[in-house]
Amino acid sequence: MKKVFLWTIFLFIALFISMKISTEVQNRILSLSDSVKIGILNFNSNILKAIQRHFHQAEQIKQLSDSLRDKQQVEYLLEALKIEYNDLLDSIHSPLRLNMPELTFVRMISFVRMNDYKKIWLEYKTNKTYQNGTIFGLINDNKVAGIAVLQNRRLEGFLNGDEKCNYSVVVGDRKSQGIAKYDINKGFIVDYIPLYPKIEVGEIVRTSGDDNIFYPGILVGIVESIELRQGYQIAKVKPALDEVTRFYWLVDVNISPFVVSAESNATESQEMSEEGLDTSNLAIPH
Fold first, then answer.
1. Sign of CA dihedral 100, 155, 70, 73
2. Domain Rod shape-determining protein MreC beta-barrel core: where (predicted)?
3. Domain contains 272
């Protein structure tokens, strides 16, 4: 009888302890489960916030890139307009050619050949119709990168240092005319510069705008050395832009300008005044 009583007490104590331990284990398991769930929820929330932040930053980057691109376009147009304006002031009695270049943002697609880093394919999207063989200027950061030629509805870029990249330039403040080109022995040069005035090392080379490829005044490079030939000078030039970039500005200066002669305009104004007509709206465009 005594043994039965002791076994009963033992079983009761064991059951009590087992229930106590089971409750504590269950509480610990539930606590761990809650921690895992909270961790997963926080992780999901952080991932969602990171994704939202990424897309928000991507949208901000896109807006800033578009803003920068528009700013660059305005900057280039203003530079071209300033040069055009100064030229007009210098030749006010000449016919006034009031035209602005058209600038298009283009993207490099690939190299034409992997072992030639001076020829590139460019993305070509435009609503205008151009003839096969049309030549455009290529600039980046208001520096000459090269030229682009439309061939079979594909736009191929020839960068400075390619044998097909030739355009008209001026050297120094005295604006000695020359042709920027590639020479297999000398590299990037300005050829056929008149003997006088003598050019000097360190002078700046800029586009002349006389070839209908670029507008005037775009930076090309700096004269590194000079060689005299029979009847002309050759300048070896360090290009201002000598690297391949992902994006370029395509320059189209072949836009039909509005041409008006200052002299004929003044004559027409005088005739209209003599006829008693209002000439207040008749003026040279600016």
1. negative
2. 162-242
3. no
